[in-house]
Amino acid sequence: MLRMSADADIYFTVLCLFRGFTFYKMGNLDNRIANADQLLTQDVEKFCNSVVDLYSNLSKPLLDIVLYIVKLTSAIGAQGPGIMMAYLLISGLFLTRLRRPTGKMTVTEQRYEGEYRYVNSRLITNSEEIAFYNGNMREKQTIHATFKKLVSNILMISTNLLHTLYCQR
């Protein structure tokens, strides 16, 4: 339900971009945003999923913790919940430290995915001109270079993640 509501709000926001040809002006006249279609589709969907996951992953555990604390305090006193809260705090700090490098890597991966999507859409849009001017080899090199950057970044992320997991033990 929350996801559908968030998607509906984003949908109406995107519709507002189509008023006055804002999307087309942004894509064709403004060079600051190269991959507007990806930003409006894939990134908006990921944002909606993240917000819904954040809500569900935050509210249920907090409710569980409050219920456990109330029941444990009434059953065994305040020492049991105190130890449990200390454990949760320490493990939360450890997991936050463990996840910190992956945020920067995810941003880089999203940027490379956007570049790759932009290069492919540019190829589709300009395919007649590319064929007429015999530019297929240049476009092939561009697409391969962009894809190679994306794949090498994904491999670097997986290598760094494994390195982080094994070195922090």
Automatic annotation (TrEMBL):
<keyword id="KW-0472">Membrane</keyword>
<feature type="transmembrane region" description="Helical">
    <location>
        <begin position="65"/>
        <end position="95"/>
    </location>
</feature>
<dbReference type="InterPro" id="IPR011527">
    <property type="entry name" value="ABC1_TM_dom"/>
</dbReference>
<dbReference type="InterPro" id="IPR036640">
    <property type="entry name" value="ABC1_TM_sf"/>
</dbReference>
<keyword id="KW-0812">Transmembrane</keyword>
<keyword id="KW-0547">Nucleotide-binding</keyword>
<feature type="domain" description="ABC transmembrane type-1">
    <location>
        <begin position="30"/>
        <end position="155"/>
    </location>
</feature>
<keyword id="KW-1133">Transmembrane helix</keyword>
<dbReference type="Pfam" id="PF06472">
    <property type="entry name" value="ABC_membrane_2"/>
</dbReference>
<keyword id="KW-0067">ATP-binding</keyword>
<dbReference type="InterPro" id="IPR050835">
    <property type="entry name" value="ABC_transporter_sub-D"/>
</dbReference>
<keyword id="KW-0813">Transport</keyword>
<dbReference type="GO" id="GO:0005524">
    <property type="term" value="F:ATP binding"/>
</dbReference>
<protein>
    <submittedName>
        <fullName>ATP-binding cassette sub- D member 3</fullName>
    </submittedName>
</protein>
